[in-house]
Amino acid sequence: MKIDVLSLFPKMFAPMQESIIGKAIDRGSLSFNVTDFRDYTTNKHNNVDDYPFGGGAGMLLTAQPIFDAIASIQEKDDQQSAGHVVLLDPAGKTFDHKDAERLAQYDHLTFVCGHYEGYDERIKTLVDEEISLGDYVLTGGELGAMVMIDATVRFLPDVLGNSESASGDSFEDGLLEYPQYTRPADFRGMKVPDVLISGNHAKIATWRLKESLKKTYLRRPDLLEGRKLSNEERDLLDDIKTELNED
Ligand code: 4GS
């Protein structure tokens, strides 16, 4: 996969050199390039922003540097394309696990990050979709882009090693993850549930499913509303509700 980013603060992307993402770049599974669109300004002061027509507070990123930076990415690409272009914007669709999985299907993604300001609306003609990291205002789109890139590349083959696996994680099957334990079986009097040491794999699977359902029911009931339940899950959830009412 090839990922391009347009940003006025390329150094903010230093974290991309670390850990799993950094290794994917070193290995060649991922190519990652940040373009400072200030380098593409045609005005003598290298300004990237201007006052909004009609007045009002704040400045807006002008169209020209971003149009020309996107053109430079297209020129470097074999297919003369910037791929699927994502604009980071709080007015966009809120990013989630499914978006990460969907973005991972593209072979080329370009993220456009604003900083401080808003955008001239015409920039959006370059953009395939607007995505928001969440319902809060950031000082810039850079951190949002990094979060989206991180969550997306986890779905690429060759990015996650054996130490981390994409399947079984929270959200993978629409439920939060069940509690997990490693050695020792008794840590300062806090014991691992007996079932996990029983060796009975069917019982362990049922226990894990029930714990996942219980945690999701208590913490994120919204996730259960958008999800079909199997007969086993429905029975377990009935048990959970009964047990909780008895407490
Ligand atoms: C977000 C967000 C954001 C909006 C950038 C105001 C500076 C800021 N970007 N998800 N101008 N939430 N952007 O808050 O993506």
From TrEMBL:
Annotated GO MF terms: tRNA (guanine(37)-N1)-methyltransferase activity
The protein's superkingdom reads: Bacteria
* Enzyme Commission number(s): 2.1.1.228
Q: Where does S-adenosyl-L-methionine bind?
A: G114, L133, G134, D135, Y136, V137, L138
Where would I find the tRNA methyltransferase TRMD/TRM10-type domain in this sequence? 1-225
Q: What is its main location?
A: cytoplasm
Catalytic reaction list: guanosine(37) in tRNA + S-adenosyl-L-methionine = N(1)-methylguanosine(37) in tRNA + S-adenosyl-L-homocysteine + H(+)
Alphabetized InterPro entries for the sequence: Alpha/beta_knot_MTases (IPR029028), tRNA_m1G_MeTrfase_C_sf (IPR023148), tRNA_m1G_MeTrfase_TrmD (IPR002649), tRNA_m1G_MTases_N (IPR029026), tRNA_MeTrfase_TRMD/TRM10 (IPR016009)
Q: Which CDD domains match?
A: TrmD-like
Which processes are annotated in GO (biological process)?
methylation
Sorted alphabetically, the keyword list is: Cytoplasm, Methyltransferase, S-adenosyl-L-methionine, Transferase, tRNA processing
Relate the protein's function as given in its record: Specifically methylates guanosine-37 in various tRNAs.
What is the protein named?
A: tRNA (guanine-N(1)-)-methyltransferase
Question: What gene makes this protein?
Answer: trmD
